[in-house]
């Protein structure tokens, strides 16, 4: 039995068995196969009609976003993706990487929101042995990893103002200095950044450098929340129904009008 399950078996009968139970099991297998075929065909239709690099949208707004991604992916030097939490900023960043000439190079992600302030520089630039207590060996930073590829600064607005100056130096001179070192390292990277903050307000407040903002923001892509583009909700509903029907091997017929109305009226906060 274990060999059978390990080879992909999902159900079995022990002898002696009743014919009606066998027929019931066969029917279940046929239904599951038909459901998978139906899900595949629906996903294929959705791909052609609404999908773009893993994103779903049919609103004029999203179609313009898809066109912009397509146009700038071939030559971008600094792209800032803005929008509320949950709008799909990381998906846009991954699409730009996938479509870019650097698609075969690394996309190194720096989750700025999760790094404690005192660790930013060591995470980005690395350090040498003896740089601080506990630094018992050299450690490469994220810029070392991203050399030749793309560094993705997720939630750039969280980077401390003191580290921003050193980040600007990387953008201007393609150089950085690991903590504890007296020597600069040269790096060639493209920058992708996201933020859910209003960086223009942060500049006014003195918490974000204006020169860094302009360096990172050669092109800005703003992703609006779903409440601003309700036309994208129906295809998303169809996609997730298909996805979970397939995943759970259950034939979910659809969503009631009342449920769809509630989804369309929901504000979808970030």
From TrEMBL:
SMART domains: AAA
Domain annotation Sigma-54 factor interaction: ranges: 55-270
Signal peptide, first to last residue: none
Example of a GO MF term: ATP binding
Pfam families in UniProt: AAA_lid_14, Sigma54_activat
Gene3D superfamilies: 1.10.8.60, P-loop containing nucleotide triphosphate hydrolases
Record InterPro entries: AAA+_ATPase (IPR003593), AAA_lid_NorR (IPR058031), CheY-like_superfamily (IPR011006), P-loop_NTPase (IPR027417), Sig_transdc_resp-reg_receiver (IPR001789), Sigma_54_int (IPR002078), Sigma_54_int_dom_ATP-bd_1 (IPR025662), Sigma_54_int_dom_ATP-bd_2 (IPR025943)
PROSITE patterns named among the record's database cross-references: RESPONSE_REGULATORY, SIGMA54_INTERACT_1, SIGMA54_INTERACT_2, SIGMA54_INTERACT_4
A GO BP entry: regulation of DNA-templated transcription
Residue intervals of the Response regulatory domain: 1-30
Keywords, comma-separated and alphabetical: ATP-binding, Nucleotide-binding
Protein name: Sigma-54 factor interaction domain-containing protein
Species whose genome carries this gene: marine sediment metagenome
Lineage: unclassified sequences, metagenomes, ecological metagenomes
